[in-house]
Amino acid sequence: MGTFFSRIAPALALAATVAIPLDGQGRGAFDLGVLRRDGILVPFASYNGRSWSADWPGPGAAVELPITLADVPTRWWGSAGPTARWTAWPIDGAARPLQLKKPEQTPVFCGTALGIRTDYPAGEFDPREPTVPKDGIAITGDAKVEPITRVSNLTKDAAQMVETIADDFNREERLAAERFQSWSHPYDDEQRKGFPIELEAFYRTRDSTPSGTWSTSYVEAVRRFPAGPFDHGCGLITFVRGWVLEREGSKPMIDVGARVTFCDRADVSFMLPFGKLLIDREPYWAYQVSSWRDEIYGVSRVRPDGVRPVLAVSGGGCPKGAPRGRGRRGD
């Protein structure tokens, strides 16, 4: 009941995705990086065979810009080290070797971040946006990549998913509305249930591990309300996002959270999944969560009995009250 989001928020203040089995029993060291559309790589996570860490300097870190790759401190490279071979796995496209060229300071939201210029061919994007869209993930070492399905919102599975989460959606919506102390929702609990739930994003994979066989879904859904006389044409919405774990013969395990806001979604975050890693035959998801004002990169362990975040790293942001950009999902 919203536990995934309550755990990840304090640490900060989900197209296609991939499955990456590691060699041997999954205990090899490796590093992960976000691959931006401008060809910049931003390392964000490292796994040493036992635990996760974030070794690359984050946005706003008080470090000097290294002139060349040879000037980058060894500790920044994480477990795989400075000589590791990187591979790019674009969300739309085939895997390709990724050559690192030089460190580069790059604008992100209201600050800057340290990245690495690569030979990845830059694509088109709007430079007026506060951040650059992400094309995928990059990984050190050998990896086999398998795409998984982004389920269309027009399918029967999507309609069934709406039915599956409806009770949890309504409960989390009621709790979100009750958190306001000096404002009351213009529609009561029963009236709100009369407005449809619309699924906006639906990612799914099926997993088979020693823990069992199950499907893991990540969903984002919304309920819209008519604009009131003082809403300037932008009415209230309820935005719900989270995980749904389904095992045959068992009741689905649903972990979602809700936010009541306006249609401009100023306080809403969206997930872009980057990949699923199998470590000791246990699945972990790597992803971005982004909003108008900030973005984070995260890794979570996925099991049939729940999803637990193991790493959350800031990708950059703006303070509240700063002007907002126009981009949201996939930024």
Can you characterise this structure?
The radius of gyration is 20 Å and the shape is globular. The chain has two domains: 3-14 and 149-310, no CATH class; 21-146, no CATH class. The protein has three helices and 18 strands. Residues 5-15 have low confidence and may be disordered. The chain starts with a helix and ends in a 14-residue tail after the last strand. The longest helix has 23 residues, at 156-178. The chain has 331 residues and is mostly beta strands. The chain is 10% helix and 44% strand.
**How many distinct folded domains?**
2
Count of distinct strands: 18
What about the largest sheet? Answer: 8 strands, antiparallel
Please indicate the percent range of residues in DSSP E strands (runs of 2 or more): 35-45%
SSE layout and pairing:
Blueprint: H1 3-8, E1 17-21, E2 30-36, E3 40-47, E4 52-53, E5 86-90, E6 96-98, E7 100-108, E8 111-118, E9 134-140, E10 146-148, H2 156-178, H3 189-192, E11 198-209, E12 212-224, E13 236-246, E14 253-262, E15 270-279, E16 282-290, E17 294-303, E18 306-317
Parallel strand pairs: 1-15
Antiparallel strand pairs: 1-10, 2-3, 2-9, 3-4, 3-8, 5-6, 5-9, 7-8, 11-12, 12-13, 13-14, 15-16, 16-17, 17-18
